[in-house]
Design brief:
Layout lengths: L5 H6 L4 E6 L3 H17 L4 E5 L10 H10 L3 E5 L5 H9 L6 E4 L12 E4 L14 H9 L5 H11 L9 H9 L5 H16 L3 H14 L3 H5 L2 H20 L2 E4 L2 E6 L6 H11 L4 E6 L6 E8 L8 H6 L4 E4 L3 E7 L3 H13 L10
Parallel strand pairs: 1-2, 1-3, 3-4, 4-5, 7-8
Antiparallel strand pairs: 6-7, 8-9, 9-11, 10-11
Helix pairs in contact: 2-5, 2-6, 2-9, 5-6, 6-8, 8-9, 8-11
Length: about 350
């Protein structure tokens, strides 16, 4: 008898399963994969999927209350590297509720008596072998390659995916698909458009749209609402890239934008692809009244992952992996935090700000 995987085992007998997921294409597709597995393994279970507040890698008290009030008896967290103290707050707010966490970011393995954790990268596997949470779920569930399992990889790796080891699997799949290379990247943009417009309700609804339509992907690519939203986001992004001030600090490009749209990661990805700078830092002054978004993306071998705990030690909301870093910074601390980030980019081995 084949041993059942940890996710399928966890959902057996559960009546109400809440899925908390990242707001990007990988997180949305991962949530859809989890819901499909729940429907297969436990057809009577009810599911509820929610993204955290867009831009934050944790749940606030109101979000935790919603899950508790709904009657959650199993929590599944996908594609969110939630730090230990925030995880404790979530689980303390859901007394007695077990949790499963599936991720692909570099992180310390969290420990909690009610948590089952699965992250091959945190357990020592290469990031290139598990480039997205959907890819982790594909292996965990023993699932074949399909649009849901590959969408997260295209989303997280972008147009550089064809230069990565996973392309030996994705390339043949794409050739046999009804989608072209440009279709896949357009679909990523369409799925991401809800978060970029900072519309959390649409983010949550995107999971249902994927579940309904992934077997007919050309229909998803043609969805009017997603295309209108994506066009709106693209106009805002182009305006910011054309007009936002920029400077160079050594070989690092620092680009400042000012927009309520969540386009900071797309801006950094586009700049690092089109400029000669090996590292791009984008600062969005329009994130919120009292806070600023900072996003770092690099090419080459520089490892940004050590900056995640470094920023979290400051009490900041931060996430990322070896090639990206995202941080939410109070405006009053921006100069100091930028100094720390740029100092690391110039000399990763230099002492930390609090060790000097």
């Amino acid at each position: 008898m084949v041993e059942e995987n940890l996710l399928t085992s966890a959902v057996r007998g559960k009546g109400r399963v809440a899925i908390v997921h990242h707001w990007d294409a990988d997180g949305i597709a991962s949530a859809a994969l989890v819901i499909e597995e729940i429907r297969r393994a436990n057809p009577d279970a009810k599911t509820l999927n929610r993204s955290p507040t867009i831009g934050r890698w944790a749940l606030d008290a109101e979000e935790i209350d919603l899950l508790r009030g709904w009657g959650t008896d199993l929590l599944v967290i996908v594609d969110l590297a939630i730090r230990d103290d925030d995880l404790d707050i979530i689980l303390d707010g859901l007394p007695g509720v077990p949790a499963v966490m599936v991720d692909h970011h570099r992180a310390e393995v969290p420990e909690h008596p009610r948590l089952v954790y699965h992250n091959p990268v945190a357990e020592g596997e290469a990031e290139t072998d598990f480039p997205a949470c959907t890819w982790v779920l594909r292996h965990l569930l023993g699932r074949g390659m399909d649009l849901l399992t590959v969408l997260g990889v295209f989303g997280d790796r972008g147009r550089g995916v064809e230069d990565e080891p996973v392309w030996s699997d994705l390339g043949p799949w794409l050739e046999g698909s009804s989608l072209t290379w440009d279709d896949m990247h357009l679909l990523v943009d369409l799925v991401d458009s809800s978060a970029k417009r900072v519309d959390r309700e649409d983010v949550d609804n995107a999971v249902g749209l994927l579940l309904e339509g992934w077997k007919e992907p050309l229909g998803l690519v043609g969805l009017d609402a997603w295309n209108r939203a994506n066009d709106e986001v693209e106009r805002a992004l182009v305006e910011q890239l054309q007009n936002g001030p920029e400077t160079e600090v050594g070989s690092t490009l620092v680009k400042t934008i000012d927009t309520p749209y969540l386009v900071i990661s797309t801006a950094a990805r586009r700049l690092v692809r089109t400029r000669d700078n090996p590292v791009v830092v984008v600062v969005n002054m329009g994130y919120s009244g009292g806070e600023v978004q900072v996003y770092v993306r690099r090419t080459g071998e520089l490892d940004l992952a050590p900056m995640i705990p470094r920023m979290r030690d400051r009490g900041l909301s931060a996430g990322g992996k070896s090639e990206v870093l995202g941080v939410i910074v109070p405006r009053s601390d921006l100069e100091d935090v930028m100094g720390d980030i740029l100092g690391y980019l110039e000399d990763p081995g230099a002492p930390r700000y609090d060790d000097q």
